[in-house]
Amino acid sequence: MNPISNIKRITFLLLFILLNFGCDQVSKIIVRDQVAEHANISIIDNFLTLTKVENTGAFLSIGHNLPEVLRILILNLFPILVIGFGLYYLFTEKNLNLWTQAGFCMLLGGGLGNVYDRIVYGSVTDFLHMDFGFVQTGVFNVADMFIMAGIGILFIYTFKKDKKDKNLTIAP
């Protein structure tokens, strides 16, 4: 890959990551400004509700009661290192297909959104809740949706790739 096309590739990837980050941050700014703490606003017939919560932990508030030093190390420093490694891998590995790149960008953009909140606000603003009747989600945000979508894309592509590679293996 020539240097110009690599710069274009990295620029596109950065823009996609920033788009994910920006969508997350805009949604949180609106919610912080317009929705009261612990409000319960039905969006789709009690299936999807807005419920603003400031989460000092990780997913489902895991770790919210850890001592502050541990919480900073585990919920701020470790994710920053993982994001740094992810960015390095994404920018230096030139043989990633489009879906893998998209999955990484969504994962990194969402991760940046939540880490940014923890550093700037001391908590992550979660505000979406889904009730399927037989099961409910925890309260989550747009960054969490990007993270889960990115993981899903990477998982599906890896599974498909492994299956394809196994089909190419010649039996003895």
Provide key terms for this protein.
172 residues, mainly alpha, 3-stranded antiparallel β-sheet, 11% strand, disordered C terminus
Outline the structure in words.
- α1 crosses α3 (98-121).
- 63% of the residues lie in helices and 11% in strands.
- The protein has a three-stranded antiparallel sheet with strand order 1-2-3.
- The chain is mainly α.
- The radius of gyration is 19 Å and the shape is globular.
- The protein has four helices and three strands; from the N terminus they run αββααβα.
- Residues 168-172 have low confidence and may be disordered.
- It has one domain.
- It starts with a helix and ends with a helix.
- β1 and β2 (48-55) form a beta hairpin.
Q: Could you give a quick summary of the protein structure above?
A:
With 172 residues, the protein is mainly alpha-helical. The chain has helices at 3-34, 68-92, 98-121, 142-168, and strands spanning 41-44, 48-55, 124-130. The chain has one domain.
How do the strands and helices of this protein lay out in sequence?
Layout: H1 3-34, E1 41-44, E2 48-55, H2 68-92, H3 98-121, E3 124-130, H4 142-168
Antiparallel strand pairs: 1-2, 2-3
Number of domains: 1
Q: Name the helix and strand elements from N-terminus to C-terminus, one letter apiece.
A: HEEHHEH
Please identify the structural class as seen in this structure: mainly alpha
Strand content: 5-15%
Instruction: Calculate the mean pLDDT score and round it.
Output: 90
What is the CA-based Rg, rounded?
A: 19 Å
Give the N-terminus to C-terminus distance in angstroms. 37 Å
Instruction: Kindly state the percentage of residues in helix.
Output: 55-70%
- Let me know the largest β-sheet: 3 strands, antiparallel
Reading side by side through the largest sheet, how are the strands ordered?
1-2-3
Number of helices: 4
Model regions low in confidence, pLDDT < 50 over at least 5 residues: 168-172
Oligomer: single chain
Number of strands: 3
Tell me, what's the shape? globular
